[in-house]
Specification:
Elements: E1 2-8, E2 33-40, E3 45-51, H1 55-63, H2 70-84
Antiparallel strand pairs: 1-3, 2-3
The structure holds zinc ion.
Zinc ion binds next to loops.
Length: 100
């Protein structure tokens, strides 16, 4: 299956000078073929086209790169709290089902 991935970061979190945009993914993960990589550098946006049939490999491709996940967690907590109509203390982790 082909995937088009759009990675966006803020200027404050820009990896330029610290590994560059290639540090935002791991192209050496088995089972994922990087077909294309395109950058809109002034927009701090990276577009990737990858092929894989292994979603866990895709997670590793994207998830093994260092990134600041706290703003995402804060946003998830805010959205869940908004959906529930009350403040939320946290979001439970979602783990993949590995019982297959
Ligand atoms: Zn950038």
């Amino acid at each position: 299956m082909l995937y088009h991935i759009t990675q966006v970061h803020t200027p404050e979190n820009c990896p330029v000078g610290d590994g560059g945009s290639n540090s935002l993914f791991d192209p050496n993960v088995d089972g994922v073929r990087l077909i294309g990589r395109y950058g809109a550098n002034s927009e701090h946006t990276l577009f990737l086209v990858v092929e894989t049939d292994d979603w866990q490999a895709l997670q590793k491709f994207l998830g093994q790169s260092p990134w600041d996940h706290e703003p995402l967690l804060d946003e998830l907590v805010r959205q869940v709290g908004t959906g529930l109509g009350e403040p939320c203390a946290g979001v439970p982790p979602i783990e993949p089902d590995t019982t297959e």
